[in-house]
Design goal:
The chain is α/β, with parallel strands linked by helices. The protein has helices spanning 39-51, 61-64, 123-129, 131-145, 147-169, 174-215, 234-243, 245-251, 272-275, 278-300, 317-329, 341-348, and strands at residues 5-12, 22-23, 28-32, 74-81, 87-94, 99-103, 106-108, 116-119, 221-226, 262-267, 270-271, 305-308, 334-338, 354-357. It contains twelve helices and 14 strands. The strands form three sheets. Strands 2-1-4-5-6-7 form a six-stranded antiparallel β-sheet, covered by helices on one side. A five-stranded parallel β-sheet has the order 8-12-13-3-14, sandwiched between helices.
């Protein structure tokens, strides 16, 4: 994973974006325009360039392809700035089947993954109401800061998939194979559980800090892991699999494990979904995201690119100013959109910020 700042971007055939070159500041960039003009599409194009995927759920390649394109491919041309002020170009051609990338006009086997975080205030609802959303959120963000977590979780999922296939199809001697796989799953489960516990513990002080800075209130925010294996040894986890094998055999699938873990977001010790207003839930979720960004900075001594899709509806005018002051005080590159005229006026006051005006792509 690399830490760069985006200086220039040109995209062809990406949704409704035109092929104009967009210039960016290494600090704060404000994208203004009416709803539906393509502000979020700029954020999506940047995220796609960084991660080779969209932040929109269940998005296939044809959905991001411009309806007016002559060829079914998206072209990226970009210029980036390193921490030591060195510039380089990154260009690529992406289709549904493959992608080709060039670094300083020279072919490369794989595109570097550039650290980026997308903030969508509407995700607060999914985070507070859906267990799978919370699991995916943690898996995605923890994988970005821990290669060990990403690798071990991938191996766990591969072993889990094979275990479920055996339980479903029941080939010859399948139970012996399942027991062998359970040794692997117990080993992976112990590592993943410990890393998840470490992650939620590290987030806690940053959640409290960012909530106080942006929302001017002191509350104890905590993401709490809910798992059957907290504090368990590898052997205890292995015994759990052994005791429940008959149940899994009847069901034809694995009915427990770290892939079914959940998280509870606590607000002063109470479940935020049950006890907080929708406004408090959104404020808590935004604080969690910025807490993660601060944790990222602590671990890598560098910030990711921060992409913020219109948060003006979640904040009153005083908190807009608090957020802007917070962003100004940080050394990360932020690209923020808004269609709110009042929030636009506040953003336009930021010294040395880059203003981008969008009109129909």
């Amino acid at each position: 994973m690399e830490f760069y700042k985006l200086e220039k971007l040109q995209v062809d055939n990406f949704r409704n974006l035109n092929s104009n070159v967009i210039d960016f500041s290494p600090t704060i960039n404000c994208i203004f325009g009416e709803n539906g003009n393509g502000k979020t599409n700029i954020l999506e194009a940047i995220f796609f360039l960084c991660n080779k995927k969209s932040f929109r759920k269940n998005t296939s390649f044809p959905q991001i392809l411009s309806v007016e394109c002559e060829k079914s491919e998206i072209l990226f041309n970009s210029v980036w700035l390193t921490d030591n002020e060195q510039k380089f170009s990154l260009s690529g051609k992406v289709s549904s089947e493959s992608s080709v990338w060039n670094l300083n006009s020279r072919p490369i086997k794989s595109k570097p993954k550039i650290a980026s975080v997308f903030i969508n205030p509407f995700d607060s609802y999914g985070f507070h109401t859906t267990a799978s959303f919370r699991r995916n959120w943690v898996d995605q963000h923890l994988s970005l800061i821990s290669k060990e977590y990403k690798d071990v979780l991938s191996r766990y999922n591969q072993s889990l998939k094979f275990r479920n296939q055996l339980l479903s199809k029941k080939p010859s001697s399948y139970l012996q194979q399942v027991e062998a796989i359970d040794d692997q799953l117990a080993y992976y489960s112990k590592i993943v559980t410990d890393l998840r516990m470490e992650f939620v513990d590290q987030l806690r002080p940053y959640c409290k800090m960012t909530f106080k800075i942006i929302f001017e209130q002191v509350h104890d925010l905590q993401l709490q892991l809910q798992s059957e294996f907290i504090g368990a040894t590898q052997e205890e986890i292995r015994d759990y699999y052994r005791r429940n094998l008959q149940k899994d055999d009847i069901n034809g699938r694995t009915t427990y494990g770290i892939h079914l873990d959940d998280y509870m977001f606590l607000f002063d010790g109470f479940n935020s979904f049950e006890f907080c207003s929708l406004g408090q839930q959104k404020m808590s979720y935004l604080s969690l995201i910025f807490a993660y960004i601060e944790l990222f900075r602590y671990k890598f001594s560098s910030y990711p690119i921060v992409l913020i899709d219109d948060v003006s509806g979640e904040l009153d005018s005083r908190r807009w100013k608090n957020l802007i002051e917070y962003l100004e005080a940080k050394n990360f590159q932020v690209i923020i959109t808004t269609a709110n005229e009042n929030f636009k006026q506040e953003l336009e006051k930021i010294k040395n910020s880059n203003k981008i005006y969008v009109d129909s792509g």
